[in-house]
Specification:
Length: 198
């Protein structure tokens, strides 16, 4: 028996084509669903971020308005009083940090044998300790030696003799003033004595 295909179209495997088309449709549908879900998610995040940005901008505007109102309410005289009170508080804190023991140790390490300190008056000016002290000596040279020792080993700088006069016993009474630098190492009395031959 002779078999032949007399159809005008060639033979196709219609089942394979159908399966391929269905598979392609499923893939396209899955990708479409994924893209739609991502779009919805990103749109939601964008809306959330936009709402947070708007809220932050509103809060910043409120804070700027509050700061402006606060600045408008500040009285310059009140501000000056507060500034002055702050300076006074800092001055009291600085005075509390002043160590008399350290100062006396420094004076002992630099005081020549023929010079006596009769009075001391520390003060704080512009955050610096200024010490005024009165000395009694037999000569101006001894006071000058004391000034040099203070600046070299005693933790002082800019020490000046503000006044020098002779009393009724012929001794020199001097008023010295200098900037005291707490924390700078001072020479010990033993080192001073060895260095001066005493």
């Amino acid at each position: 028996m002779l078999r032949s295909n007399l159809s005008t179209r060639p033979f196709y495997n219609e089942r394979a084509v159908a399966v391929a088309l269905v598979t392609l449709a499923v893939v396209v549908a899955a990708m479409t669903l994924f893209n739609v879900s991502r779009l919805v998610t990103l749109s939601g995040r964008h809306s959330e971020l936009r709402a947070r940005t708007d809220s932050a901008e509103r809060r910043a505007a409120e804070l700027r308005a509050q700061a402006q109102r606060a600045r408008a309410r500040i009285d310059p005289a009140t501000l000056e009083r507060v500034t002055r009170a702050t300076r006074e508080a800092n001055l009291l804190i600085d005075r509390r940090t002043f160590s008399w023991t350290d100062l006396f140790n420094r004076l002992e390490s630099t005081l020549p044998p023929d010079v006596r300190v009769t009075a001391i008056d520390p003060s704080v000016q512009d955050g610096r300790f200024t010490v005024t002290f009165w000395v009694l000596a037999r000569s101006v040279d001894q006071i000058d030696a004391f000034i040099e020792a203070l600046e070299k080993n005693g933790g002082f700088t800019d020490v000046l003799a503000r006044e020098e006069r002779t009393d009724e016993e012929g001794q020199i009474v001097g008023t010295l003033e200098g900037v005291y630098l707490p924390g700078r190492d001072a020479a010990s009395p033993d080192v001073r004595r060895r260095g001066t031959g005493r």
